[in-house]
Give the backbone structure.
Amino acid sequence: MDTEIFLFDEPTANLDFAATQQLKSILFALKKQGKALLLSEHRLYYLAGIADEYWVMENGKIQGKYPAEEARKFSPEQRQVLSLRTLDLAEISVPEKPQLQKAVAEVLRVSDICYTYKRKSNSTLSGISFSVQMHEIIGLVGSNSCGKTTLGKLIAGLYRPSGGRIALFGKLQNPKKLQKQVLFIMQEAEFQFFTNSVLHELQYGHSVTPEFEKRTEALLKSMDMWDCRDRHPFSLSGEEMQRPKKAKKLPADNAIELKNVCFAYHDKEVLHGINLHIAPGTVNALVGPSGSGKSTIARLIASLWEVKDGAIELGGVDIRQLPLKDCTDRIAYVSQDNYLFDLSVMDNIRMGRKGASDREVIDAAKKCGCHAFIMGLENGYQTMCETSGGHLSGGERQRISIARAMLKDAPIVILDEATSYTDPENEAVIQSALAQLVQGKTLLVIAHRLSTITDADQIIVVNQGRIEATGTQEELLASCPLYQTMWEAHINVKDNGEVA
């Protein structure tokens, strides 16, 4: 897709520090090519030296536009008022980049854009106007529910505005035309994939000539992705699980044991001989670089995928010998991608335990800090959720998912970066909700922010599909070079003002 405008919706939500720096290099390369970029973000430090302005949204409006130099001078108090993470970029070491000469060509103009979700009584966006030129990178920031993602989807033609106009290069556009000219890169990447391999995904919709094949190969190699060309874009195995209808033996407890577990996406093995013991009632953390296999391990334990070689035992019983319902009843899995069904909020939470009363659903919502915002919706608990929770913010979807898991009351809880899409204020609410969810449970958490798991009973370091080390925080700092490096990088970011 040859496009001049790129919209990124919280692109660093799932990235560790190293991957975030790679993203920064990609953004700067796009800027040098003359592309216009808008990023909806909470994490801002990586935009140092490349962002031209920061626009702050609140209550469906752009309340302020701040040049990068001015934004650097914000006091902590100002950032708190604006619901921003650190903008004090002077403390962060940034490689010198040559200044680009700004072009005068206007790529995008938005005039008096308004938008109201069908099921909400008040406007989500109201009278937004701005323009973007070639070579510009704009950071679009603000707290959850302020309208950042909605604005991005309007510019990409995914939503139709209730008022206002959008023009590209001076020509007015309708949603259908915008979809062909604007690339929208979502935080939920899997909703954008249509084929069964990375290579075919890039070729989708194009006439595949020898010249195009060369361009595709060059692009993948430039991003160190050529070896992944035959993998499924979001790594689904595509094979159905075969489980017995009745268990021959019941688990003795909630201990989890992985015995020489291997797993492959198609013909590429990504886990190699994993051996791991998780004792009942303990707190365990999976850490490691992006792509090391942490989420794959968690999803295998949760029976979302099936082990091909080796075994996973629950209370001494191979999970393949248990009915799937017996496994899922014992495990509550809260992922970073929170899928809501096209049902009411009440019924979405009740998916955690079918047959639960309305009072039990509401009690779970209160414990998770989402009762107040649910009551603020047009029809309260009877408000219908669009597929994937379209008109709810990332933080709101996350809290509904946690309420669903709390209602389930499973003895094993798996948290896969459960605060990825939240701003600092909502993160505190969600952390409090998670603390109640995991009391007395066997807990497995995937974490990038190492300061949140220092008290874990067991920290498991995963690297390139293998377990490199296990131990407590003190033990790993003394014996594991990879964990030492990760901890030092984490502390450096934290010292420079980024929310840890």
Notes: Residues 221 and 497 are 34 Å apart (CA to CA). The first strand starts at residue 5 and ends at 9. The radius of gyration is 23 Å. Residues 256-495 form a domain with the Rossmann fold fold (CATH 3.40.50.300).
